[in-house]
Amino acid sequence: MRSALALIRVSFLTAASYRFAMFVSVASLALQIVPTYFIGRTLDPFMAPAIKGQGSDYFGFLVVGTIAYLLLAASVDALPRALERGISTGTLELIFSTPSSTGSLLVGLTGYELLWTTTRCLVVLGAAAAFGFHAHWSRLPEAAAIFALIVATYFGVGMIAGAMIIAFRRTAALQTVVIVGSAMFGGVTYPPSLVTTAVSRYSNAPDWIGRLVEIVPLTYGLRAVRRITIDDAPLRAVLGDVGTLGVFCLVLLSAGSLAMAHALRRARAEGTLSQY
Known about the structure:
This protein is an all-alpha fold. Helices cover about 75% and strands about 0% of the residues. The chain has one domain (about 1-270).
């Protein structure tokens, strides 16, 4: 645990030396709420039927989707980028040659990015509240737990991408495919039901496109969070979605752990950890 905290501290001190960039990052997110508010209010009458059961307010729908997208992108991309930096600077072999556990090192390499993203999400939430985002604030602990489950699920994908970085020095655009695909089919800016409806209306569209929403973990996590925070649905009403997300989490974390262990074992045997 101490090694993880040390790595997080190093990342924080590095980022803190670029204070203006940190300020711009936070300010831009806060300002982003302004167009989001007007878009949400303008489209609310048209989107209300489509988002029924996932939040009765389209502005709130977009706010929750924005927070989920920030966490998703950080979960998928943090580890591969940290490993790429370690390879390019020649520090990766030194890090993994310490007696610390692999899990502790992975947490240390990605911890700051995830904590910083959480801070940015709180900024979005605060700015949205200033613009009238109506949420059931007492349900935030439950929503936070589901968001944590989303982060853990997509961190498994990040570990698979990280294993590909160690083994092949490239990820074949895995992060981009997962992040963009989840945003398109997972309900970040529009409900997944619109995808299936659109596919059913066009005879030339392949049926499998509509079924993609069923294999995107974000679909279940976002629906559960929105029903809890916006519609104040009881926890038992979202247990099905949370359970499905939990299965995705178990499968992806297991696959990511196996991939990372295999990649590290192979790299140590071949002596390629520090080879760019």
